[in-house]
Amino acid sequence: MAKLMEKVMDALDVETFIVCDSEDQGKGIALEMMKNLGFDDVDLVFIEFIGPGARIRARAYLHRSGDKYGWLFTSGEGK
């Protein structure tokens, strides 16, 4: 899977509905979920608390501006 992630230009968005009691609880669960998936650099770009939970879009940054982009290096060079 690491080779596939090298093809991602900048970020990966995950959108889901989390069952929770409040917006703050939903934020915490979403951030913990992304960390458990192995992502360290995460922003929540959308959250809407409705009914039984929150609709959330989390963005995991694989490359920030100025990083050495994985998709530029196909043979493992430059890392």
Overall description:
Helices cover 23% and strands 34% of the residues. The chain has 79 residues and is of the alpha+beta class. Strands 1-3-2 form a three-stranded antiparallel β-sheet, covered by helices on one side. It is elongated.
What's a concise summary of this model?
The chain is of the alpha+beta class and 79 residues long. It is built from 2 helices and 3 strands.
Strand content: 25-35%
Element pattern in H and E: HEHEE
Overall residue-averaged pLDDT value = 87
Q: Kindly provide the radius of gyration, computed on alpha-carbon positions and rounded to a whole number of angstroms.
A: 15 Å
Distance between the termini: 17 Å
Total E-strand runs: 3
Characterize the overall form: elongated
Multimerization state: single chain
In helices, the fraction of residues equals 10-25%
Strand order in the sheet with the most strands: 1-3-2
Low-confidence stretches: none
Structure classification: alpha+beta
If helices are DSSP runs of H or I spanning 4 or more residues, what is the number of helices?
Answer: 2
The largest pleated sheet is described as: 3 strands, antiparallel
Which key phrases capture this entry?
23% helix, 79 residues, alpha+beta, elongated, 2 helices
Layout of strands and helices, then pairs:
Blueprint (H helix, E strand, L loop, with lengths): L1 H4 L5 E9 L3 H14 L5 E9 L2 E9 L18
Antiparallel strand pairs: 1-3, 2-3
